[in-house]
Amino acid sequence: MHDLEKMVNIMETEYQLYNTLLDLSQKKTHAIANGKIKDLEKLVEAEEHLVLELSRVEDERERCAAELARQLGMDSKDVTISNLISHAEGELAERLSELQKKINKQISEQKRVNRLNEQLIKNNLEYINFSLGLLTGGGQPGVIYKKTGETDSKQQERNLIDKKA
User: Fold this and answer.
1) Distance between alpha carbon 50 and the CA centroid of its chain, in Å?
2) Alpha-carbon span 113 to 26, nearest angstrom
3) I want to staple 137 with a disulfide (CB 3.0 to 4.6 A). Which of 7, 67, 110, 159 is the partner?
4) Between 150 and 92, residue with greater pLDDT
5) Per-residue pLDDT tens for 13-22?
6) CA 92 – CA 4 distance, rounded (Å)
7) What b/e sequence results for 78-115 when a residue is b if at least 16 CB atoms lie within 10 Å of its CB, and e otherwise?
């Protein structure tokens, strides 16, 4: 089946693009952990270009899935790797089966890296907010006056910065 082979080729292309995305995510982990903002900006820009390419390939895959669904007499949302394996034969079935394993592993790894990056960003944000609080005196009471109108001896220390950025 020519369209089935075309679908496998498209999916292998998507797999390669997602591998590149995973690599970028792992590089982002390194950039976030080491505070390399310029590197992070470049990685995000590269990621944006890759997402556009992935979108193009995904559209192609959806068109192919619709055509396969029509040929196989099923709904296009039912065109899954498992269903395709059952309709494929020989080497094509083996490629699909191997691709299914690789994609599942890839998804798990991408989720793990995304969670790590999210946690690193949260930690950095908490540190920044803590540092700003120290510099601006955030959370400290203002000058306290006694009943006589004089300032209390436990007066607030001077802040390096008057307001949060």
Assistant:
1) 12
2) 7
3) 159
4) 92
5) 999 999 999 9
6) 8
7) ebebeebbebbeeebbebbeebbeebeeeeeebeebee
User: At 138, is the secondary structure helix, strand, or coil?
Assistant: coil
CA separation for the pair 65, 51 (Å, rounded) = 20
Neighbours of 38 (CB within 10 A): 8
Alpha carbon of residue 16 to chain centroid: 17
Strand (E) or helix (H) holding 5: helix 2-33
CB atoms within 10 A of CB 37: 10
Q: 15: which 2 tokens?
A: 């797999």
Strands (E), 46-154: none
Q: Are 60 and 11 in contact (CB under 8 A)?
A: no
Q: In residues, how long is the chain?
A: 165
pLDDT bracket for residue 155 (50, 70, 90): very low
Q: State the Cα–Cα distance between residues 22 and 109, nearest whole angstrom.
A: 8
Q: Which residue has the tokens 């269903």?
A: 83
Measured distance CA(81)–CA(148) in Å, rounded:
80
